[in-house]
Design goal:
Length: about 325
């Protein structure tokens, strides 16, 4: 008995030492003493944004994803171009489609008024993502906090790590694995496409020239194909049309599991969506499961969001707490 206690004591000491060596862990109550209203300040800002424009929660949720996949969740995506680096806002995945930055500016400004120099932009983005889901009808979770903000951004890495909408399942799984997320996380987090919009340019190859065949993607539902071709004429598609289609054609502002039912009906919008169902194997199984079990989807989504939100955070003394999410404090 005594030796068991001794061993577990030693284990505890070793573990906490490891923790010290590897930096600090994120925790839910991080701002309990320093800014107890942090989460309510964010929620008010996201609510206001949603009232302004029903699409904004989707746009904001996407920013957290595009942040975490590039150097970890460090608010690098929010930085404007600076003297010594080019920001990520003009990377292929972001240029012309990343949006909602003004909402973050407003929330951050209010945060600075109430708790100056305390709450990081990376944490604000993680809280915003949760609130975007909840205000759209999804299930809440406790956001882990304590991230700090990067001193730099990396457009090359944004191009490299964020998957393209033309991706097949192999590529999607590989890109998620590269940041420590599983194939299941990938299918689950793709369910974020239950809200929001995409430009024709993100899917027009499917309508006219899938994989260079000169023909539409045969897996698209015929009626759905026709309506998309009407929205995105070939000429406009060639000229990078900015017309928008909902990612979930049935309930584009409601966070639910309809996305997975759409895929099963050949009504997924992006190639990266539809292949989750049309490619035989593991991903298809989860599309079926989530399609018939909303609770299971919500539960998995919560877990995968927490996992995505924990990708390589800057903690302790690394990075900084930015005053303005668009610039590093040194202004370089
Ligand atoms: C699995 C790989 C993914 C790919 C290939 C992908 C690709 C895309 C593309 C191409 C768009 C439309 C951009 C445009 O208009 O050009 C989009 C929109 C969106 N994505 Fe993803 N995405 C993926 C995963 C995710 C994840 C993990 C999330 C969040 C957890 C997410 C959230 C969103 C949201 C909410 C929108 C709509 C944004 C808006 O309306 O402004 N996506 N995605
Ligand atoms: C971003 O989009 C704008 C407007 O379409 C375009 O002029 C610019 O060249 C693009 N930038 C990059 C880096 O692709
Ligand atoms: C840009 O300058 C900041 C501040 O000196 C520095 O921390 C950062 O690493 C620099 N970034 C690049 C890409 O050189
Ligand atoms: C930016 O990302 C690229 C691709 O991942 C990497 O090779 C490069 O070292 C990064 N640049 C900086 C300054 O971190
Ligand atoms: C998936 O896409 C990648 C990159 O375009 C390609 O190299 C690979 O052959 C594709 N895999 C399958 C199974 O189609
Ligand atoms: C389809 O795309 C391929 C390359 O992917 C190209 O060679 C071909 O000309 C395109 N066909 C049409 C009809 O646009």
């Amino acid at each position: 008995m005594k030796s068991i206690i001794t061993i577990s004591l030693i284990c505890c000491m070793l573990l906490s030492r490891c923790n010290l060596l590897h930096g600090h862990k994120l925790k839910h109550h991080f701002y309990e003493k320093t800014c107890p209203n942090a989460e309510s300040i964010v929620l008010a800002g996201v609510k206001k944004a949603q009232q302004q424009e029903a699409r904004l929660p989707a746009s904001l949720l996407r920013l957290h994803f595009h942040d975490c996949f590039v150097q970890g969740c460090d608010a690098s995506v929010l930085l404007d171009d600076a003297a010594n680096f080019t920001g990520e806002k003009t990377s292929n995945p972001n240029n012309g489609s990343a949006r909602g930055f003004e909402v973050i500016d407003q929330i951050k400004a209010e945060m600075e008024r109430r708790c100056r120099g305390v709450v990081s932009c990376a944490d604000i983005l993680a809280i915003i993502a949760r609130d975007a889901v909840v205000l759209s009808g999804g299930k809440p979770w406790k956001v882990q906090l304590g991230r700090r903000d990067s001193l730099t951004a990396n457009r090359t890495a944004s191009n490299q790590f964020i998957p393209a909408p033309t991706s097949n399942v192999t590529t999607l799984i590989a890109k998620f694995k590269a940041v420590g997320l599983s194939a299941k996380d990938m299918v689950t987090l793709s369910g974020a496409h239950t809200i929001g919009q995409a430009r024709c340019t993100a899917f027009s190859q499917r309508l006219y020239n899938q994989s260079g065949t000169g023909k539409p993607d045969p897996t698209i539902n015929k009626g759905f194909l026709q309506s998309l071709q009407q929205l995105c004429p070939q000429a406009a598609a060639a000229g990078n049309s900015n017309f928008l289609a909902p990612l979930d054609l049935r309930t584009p502002t409601h966070f639910d599991n309809r996305y997975y039912l759409n895929l099963q009906a050949g009504k997924g919008l992006l190639n990266s969506d539809e292949v989750l169902y049309t490619t035989p194997g593991f991903t298809k199984k989860y599309v079926r499961k989530y399609g018939c079990d909303k609770e299971e989807f919500f539960d998995s989504f919560r877990k995968s969001m927490i996992k995505m939100g924990s990708i390589k955070p800057l903690t302790g003394k690394k990075g900084e707490i930015r005053n303005n999410c668009r610039f590093t404090n040194s202004g370089l």
